[in-house]
Design brief:
By secondary structure, the protein is of the alpha/beta class. It has two domains: 171 residues, 3-Layer(aba) Sandwich (Rossmann fold), CATH 3.40.50; 149 residues, Rossmann fold (3-Layer(aba) Sandwich), CATH 3.40.50. Helix content is 45%, strand content 20%. The chain contains 15 helices and 13 strands. Strands 7-6-8-9-10-12-13 form a seven-stranded mixed beta sheet, sandwiched between helices. Helix 3 packs across helix 13, helix 4 crosses helix 5 and helix 9 packs parallel to helix 11. The protein is elongated, with a radius of gyration of 22 Å. The protein starts with a helix and ends with a strand.
C-alpha cells in the first residue's frame, strides 16, 4: 500500500480517536535522485533498497523513498533541491549523479547527503577529506576518470586498426565531461590515436551526434560516463548497430542492451553501498564522522553477438579477462 493511500485510510476512519492518530510517528523521507529514467534504472534502485534493508529500513514500512528521475535534465536540480530543503527531508541520496550531489551540497549544510561520486569528492568540495568528511555529506567514491585510459586501451586491443575515435560527452554533466576530456588528452596521443569531442545532453542530441558520425565515419565511439547516457542504452545499441560503429561504455547495462563493450565500476554495488550509508545516517550516525568508502570493484563486459555483427574477432586474451561475455 502506498503511504498516501495509507494516510487517506486513517483520515477517513471515524473509529480512530484523534489523539491516537496524533501519536503515529511520521516516517523519515529519503529523496533518491537519479540522472536517468525509471525504466533504465530500476535494477540500480533495487540495489539501493537492498542496501537500506541491510541496515533495517524497508520502503513503506519504516522509511519513505521519494524518487526523482531527472532524465538528463540537470537544470531541474536547483528547484528540486530548494523544494527538498523547504520540506526538510531526512536524507538526500544521490548515487551515481555528481551534478545532483553538488547541487545538494550547494543547497543545504544541514540535511544529510549520501552520495555516489565518480570523481574525487575532496576535489569536488563534497567533503574535507575521505577519512573525515567534516560536513553533511559522505558516501561512496567509485572510480570513473581513473578508468578512461584502461577503457581506451581495451578498445584499442579489441580494434587495433582504429585510429580515429569520437568521444561523446554530456556538457550538462560538467565535472565528468571536464575530467573525461582531460584524461583523453593524455591517453589518446600515447596510443597513437586521434580523437574529436562531440556533445549531447538530450535524446535528440544523441541522434544528431550519430548523424555526424555517419558523415565523418569514426573508427570507434567512446561514450563518456554519465547517468543519462547509461539510461539511453537501448538508443545507443540501435544507433550503433544501424551505423555499424563499435562503441565502448562505462556501464555494463549498455552492453547487455546490445553495446559492444564496457569497462567500469560495478554500478549496482555502488548503489547498494549508498543505500547502506543512507540507512546508517537514518539510524543517527553523522555524515561528518562516516569515512568515504572507495569502491574498487570493476567489470569488463563484451557482447560477442554485437562483435560478430560488426565483423570484429575478439582476441582470446580479451575473452579470458572479461568478467562477462554476452552471447
Amino acid at each position: 500500500m502506498r503511504r498516501r493511500d495509507f494516510i487517506k485510510g486513517i483520515a477517513g476512519s471515524a473509529a480512530w480517536p484523534i489523539i491516537a492518530r496524533a501519536q503515529q510517528p511520521a516516517l523519515p523521507v529519503v529523496a533518491f535522485i537519479n540522472g536517468g529514467t525509471l525504466e533504465a534504472s530500476a535494477r540500480k534502485a533495487a540495489s539501493f533498497r537492498a542496501g537500506l534493508s541491510e541496515v533495517g529500513y524497508v520502503e513503506g514500512q519504516n522509511v519513505v523513498l521519494e524518487y526523482h528521475w531527472l532524465e538528463g535534465h540537470y537544470d531541474r536540480l536547483p528547484a528540486l533541491m530548494a523544494d527538498l530543503v523547504r520540506r526538510g527531508v531526512a536524507v538526500i541520496a544521490t548515487p551515481g549523479s555528481t551534478p545532483a550531489a553538488l547541487a545538494a551540497k550547494t543547497a543545504t549544510t544541514t540535511i544529510p547527503i549520501a552520495f555516489g561520486a565518480g570523481e574525487d569528492p575532496v576535489r569536488l568540495g563534497l567533503v574535507s577529506s575521505l577519512a573525515r568528511p567534516g560536513g553533511n555529506a559522505t558516501g561512496i567514491n567509485f572510480f570513473v576518470n581513473e578508468l578512461i585510459t584502461k577503457r581506451l586501451r581495451l578498445l584499442h586491443d579489441l580494434i587495433p586498426k582504429a585510429a580515429h575515435i569520437t568521444v561523446l560527452v554530456n556538457p550538462a554533466n560538467a565535472p565528468t565531461t571536464e575530467a573525461t576530456i582531460h584524461e583523453m588528452e593524455k591517453a589518446a596521443p600515447a596510443m597513437g590515436l586521434q580523437y574529436q569531442v562531440l556533445n549531447a545532453a538530450t535524446a535528440s542530441e544523441i541522434n544528431t551526434a550519430f548523424a555526424a558520425f555517419r558523415r565523418e565515419r569514426p573508427d570507434a565511439l567512446f561514450v563518456a560516463p554519465d547517468g543519462f547516457f547509461a539510461s539511453r542504452a537501448v538508443q545507443f545499441a540501435i544507433l550503433t548497430a544501424r551505423d555499424r560503429i563499435p562503441a565502448t561504455y562505462s556501464d555494463r547495462d549498455c552492453v547487455a542492451a546490445g553495446g559492444l563493450m564496457s569497462y567500469g565500476t560495478d554500478i549496482p554495488e555502488m548503489f547498494r553501498q549508498v543505500g547502506v550509508y543512507t540507512g546508517r545516517i537514518l539510524k543517527g550516525e553523522k555524515p561528518a564522522e562516516i569515512p568515504v568508502a572507495q569502491l574498487a570493484k570493476f567489470e569488463f563486459a563484451i557482447n560477442l553477438e554485437t562483435a560478430q555483427a560488426l565483423g570484429i574477432e575478439v582476441p582470446s586474451g580479451l575473452l579470458s579477462i572479461a568478467d562477462e561475455v554476452i552471447e
